[in-house]
Design brief:
- The chain has three domains: about 120 residues, no CATH class; about 400 residues, Glutamine synthetase/guanido kinase, catalytic domain (Creatine Kinase, Chain A, domain 2), CATH 3.30.590.10; about 130 residues, Four Helix Bundle (Hemerythrin (Met), subunit A) (Up-down Bundle), CATH 1.20.120.
- The chain is about 45% helix and about 15% strand.
- The strands form four sheets. Strands 10, 11, 12, 13, 14, 15, 18 and 19 form an eight-stranded antiparallel beta sheet that branches.
- α19 packs parallel to α21.
- It binds adenosine-5'-diphosphate (ADP) and magnesium ion.
């Protein structure tokens, strides 16, 4: 645990001290080289080896001055985690000494053995070659542990044949695609100055903390991140006394160090608070360019876990660590911004800005409706299956929230009534573009919508807490890029732009307004209403993922050069395999715990009760309570034994299924329900067996003690 005295080290000084940011490059690089780097970041020029050599030398000196001995290309393979391959800077000089070297080549390109990372059949293992390439859009940083410091260089990971083996490459490509189409639309709207578009992303990360002592006694938490058994304590989250409550000292200390660690690497952690569930928390950094935000979020997750351990706790990032208690998600705040600083979802006040706003917002509505299945697929994981559709999380139905005033404006345009007043009394007047001025407070709040407009950005709330945000952002960018492309095709041909804009919004919104829903998304009425509207409600990941191999999805990604057909297909396989593996581990630990911990403990306890009952009977005392309890526990133990055997059978069948799709289905349809049946018995036993005799710490310890 490290305590930093902010009077001695001001936060502003600490911030970014371990980050090779643009500010550091500006200070340390020759002027012309820094300008080159800015141009490369802006996508205007390719990185040359000459420039890379200069940057590498400066980066090396900077890192070494801060104590680094090693560097690593830091990338995000399809495991969902980040990967590192460390090399030291040393280079032997032949006389028994070394010098510290780092070349431009080493900066821009790495060659980790790719054979052990998932490729979904893209690369046979004998073609082990994979390359990592420096991602200039996300800053290098230093990772420090008590024994040393490593320079981490964010990279993209590709195969020998150029196929993406990571989550970064497709994201970068999707931003490019979106940029091309958005700029076309902006030009048609008369914007001559913006050159490029980026997406800005600010993820709000939820997580649980549990005491390390109890965590260590829960092998299920250790291996799978969630409890496969457990009974809710007498007190759950019903008192709602945790949300925004005062932080416990231990947690406050943890958060202070978490912030400090993130600030050091240049991550602007800003907001932190207790969440709804006991021992659940949230951290939100200020938004960044999406590629930097993706990396930052991976680091946030990693740092939560590292710092928690230093404070005698464990950070849980799983979407549903505890059944019956709120799960954890990640709100992906997303917006589109131009290189000259225009937020396209800022409703603005002048008519020009607002035509732009309404047009781009209409594009998002259309994209979310047309590509609802794809957006659903972007968050399809076995962990999120426990969350989506449960009544605290957004439902599995993809809908979009706009709030009353904005929806009214769109409705009016669709109905051809674009003057008059909104219900809220705000004036709608015709501007030069014949589009209405927007009322001041354009959107109210809605906590239940999976995709909500929140003033000047959209908040996609279906993302799971443990997921990389790269894929959800990639799919979202692709969907919006396609709609904007169609808008641009029309606008470029139109002689009267104002009429064309109006016409596009009218047509698009009329066709896709079914996806706009401003009510409570957690109700059963909404499920029925959504069905009437024809909106898909895909409740599990296996079904959700199938959209990835539909021809229209493959065509979408090909059109925008984000994935080739092979890449789309291989990713579908990887996601299914991952789903199966996850449940395979959960089922394995369920069987293990049921057989080797729960069953023996329960049988011992019922035997002890029976013995006590006999002893009591021998002295003539009435013992029917002991007898009844012993009998009930024995019955449940026997049922547990049977259910465990059944789980083992279906698990074996699933493991033997060769076809990836059929296998994932088997895990979902057979293994998961069989696990639930085992859990029912275990949880019933937990309620009957004395706490002292129970082999696992319960939800009470895990959720309330810190
Ligand atoms: P809320 O309370 O509505 O969730 P906040 O202002 O707390 O909104 O912001 C939540 C997250 O959204 C933060 O990470 C913030 O930086 C991010 N955010 C704000 N504006 C944008 C934007 N234009 N693009 C992307 N993310 C944004
Ligand atoms: Mg929010």
């Amino acid at each position: 645990m490290s305590v930093i005295d902010f009077t001695k080290t001001p936060v502003a000084e600490l911030f970014g001290s371990n980050c090779f940011s643009n500010a550091v490059m500006k200070e340390r690089l020759p002027k012309n080289i820094y300008k080159e780097i800015l141009a490369v970041q802006a996508g205007e020029r390719e990185l040359t080896l000459t420039v890379a050599e200069v940057v590498a030398a400066v980066m090396r000196d900077w890192a070494i001055s801060k104590g680094a001995s090693h560097y690593t290309h830091w990338f995000q393979p399809l495991t969902g985690l980040t990967a590192e391959k460390h090399d030291s800077f040393i280079s032997p000089t032949g006389d028994g000494k070394v010098i510290m070297e780092f070349s431009g080549k080493e900066l821009v390109k790495g060659e980790p053995d790719a054979s052990s990372f998932p490729s979904g059949g893209l690369r046979a293992t004998f073609e082990a070659r994979g390359y990592t390439a420096w991602d200039v859009t996300s800053p290098a940083f230093l990772k420090q542990d008590p024994t040393g410091t490593t320079l981490c260089i964010p990279t993209a990971f590709i195969s020998y044949y150029g196929q993406a083996l990571d989550k970064k490459v497709p994201l970068l490509k999707s931003v490019d695609a979106l940029s091309v189409q958005a700029i076309r639309v902006l030009r048609a709207l008369g914007n001559e100055t913006s050159k490029r578009l980026i997406t800005t992303v600010g993820p709000e990360q939820e997580y649980f903390l549990v005491d390390k002592e109890y965590f260590d006694k829960r092998p299920d938490l250790l291996l799978t991140g969630r409890t496969v058994f457990g009974v809710l304590p007498a007190k759950g989250q019903e008192m709602e006394d945790h949300y925004f409550g005062a932080l416990k000292e231990k947690v406050a200390g943890f958060m202070r160090e978490l912030n400090t660690e993130l600030w050091k690497v240049g991550i602007p952690a800003k907001t932190q608070h207790n969440e709804v569930a006991p021992n659940q928390f949230e951290i939100a950094p200020v938004f960044l360019n999406s590629t930097a935000a993706v990396d930052a979020n991976q680091l946030v997750m990693e740092t939560i876990r590292t710092v928690a351990r230093r404070h005698g706790m464990e950070g849980l990032l799983h979407e549903k660590p505890f059944a019956g208690v709120n799960g954890s998600g990640k709100h992906n705040n997303w917006s589109m911004a131009t290189d000259d600083g225009i937020n396209l979802f800022d409703p603005g006040e002048n008519p020009e800005a607002n035509a732009r706003f309404l047009l781009f917002a209409a594009a998002v509505i259309e994209a979310v409706d047309r590509y609802a299945l794809l957006i659903r697929a972007s968050v399809a994981t076995s962990g999120n299956d426990h969350r989506l559709g449960a009544n605290e999380a957004p439902p599995a139905i993809v809908s979009i929230f706009f709030g009353g005033p904005l929806t009214e404006i769109f409705d009016n345009i669709a109905e051809g009534k674009n003057s008059g007043k909104t219900e809220s009394g705000a004036l709608i007047k015709l501007g030069v573009t014949s589009l209405p001025a927007l009322p001041k407070d354009v959107s109210d709040r809605n906590r239940t919508s999976p995709f909500a407009f929140t003033g000047n950005k959209f908040e996609f709330r279906m993302v799971g807490s443990s997921q990389s945000i790269a894929t959800p952002n990639t799919y979202l960018n692709a969907a919006v890029a396609q709609v904007l492309k169609e808008y641009a095709d029309k606008l470029e041909k139109a002689s009267n732009k104002n009429e064309a804009i109006q016409g596009i919004i009218k047509e698009s919104y009329s066709k896709h307004k079914r996806v706009v829903f401003n009510g409570n998304g957690y109700t059963d009425e909404w499920v029925r209403e959504a069905e009437r509207r024809g909106l898909p409600n895909v409740k599990n990941a296996v079904d959700a993922l199938s959209v990835l191999i539909r021809s229209e999805t493959i065509a979408l990604f090909e059109e925008h050069r984000i994935f080739t057909k092979e890449e789309s297909e291989s990713r579908y396989h990887i996601y299914l395999e991952k789903y199966s593996k996850q449940i395979n581990i959960e089922a394995g630990i369920t069987i293990e715990l049921a057989r080797r911990s729960i069953f023996p403990a329960a049988s011992d306890f019922s035997a002890k009760l029976a013995k006590d009952a006999a002893a009591l009977a021998a002295i003539g005392a009435v013992s029917s309570a002991q007898e009844k309890r012993a009998k009930r526990i024995a019955e449940l133990s026997s049922e547990l034994f049977d259910e465990t055997a059944k789980l083992e059978t279906v698990l074996g069948e699933a493991q033997d299924t060769v076809d990836v799709q059929a296998q994932a289905k088997a895990y979902f349809e057979k293994v998961r329900p069989a696990m639930d049946n085992v859990r029912d018995k275990v949880d019933a036993l937990e309620k009957l067996v004395s706490k002292n005799a129970w082999p696992l710490p319960g939800y009470e310890e895990l959720l309330f003690k810190l």
